[in-house]
Amino acid sequence: MSLLFSKKQKMKCADLSGAKKYLQHIHCHIKLPKKAIVCPLTSITKYVLSQGHFKHYWCAADIYVDEKKGYCYVTGTEIGAPAMASALEIIIGLGVKELLLIGLAGSVQPEVLAGDIVLCDGALADEGVSAHYVPREILLPSKVMQTRLAKTFEKEKLNFHTGLTWTTEAVFRETREEVEHYQKKNILTVEMEASAFFAICEKRKVKGAAAFAISDELFNLKWEPHFGEKLVVNGMRAVFHAAAKTLTGK
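Given the sequence above, the corresponding structure tokens read:
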């Protein structure tokens, strides 16, 4: 048995279902702000909620709306492109137009250390979701959103790196060979959502950019985790604050 056609051919075909039809089916009539931060992991949710006045909804993810500041915080999809993609489609279906993906990533380069901040300027697609939307090897953020986020980092006097990420969906299958190869290609990080995020944003004609805090290191060809350490938590909080200021100006 073979696939009917290539993903490039699929690009020309219309969806049978789609998020808006799904939302009609489940009678979901939430009205979301046009701006959203998407953070698949829940590790900083308690902290985020202490920084505003949020109203909670649930639809494929936890959606927290700060009506005063005019944005929502979307979390709880857990790691991986497929889960994130479902939530992303739904919040776009509910009216979101500008999105910032924030999260954790592993470092592939020795100059990028645990706790560092990385602004993503493209993602190598090594996952299966993005090809159903935009079948390219490298997926790109919105230049407008990326530039706005970079300016916020600079205004907040945050040190950050800018570069490509490698998006994979096999959480325990990074290999020595891949890390060595991507080091030579100047890829900075590895994570599990960015390429699909960029592809869906492009396909649905919304603006999206991404930034990460480094939680683990692979550049020595061994895994060195730093999850939960203060420097990583502080990095994530700094990325969140910069994302919120970029979207709201507050």
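The two ends are 54 Å apart (CA to CA). Try to locate this feature in the token string yourself.
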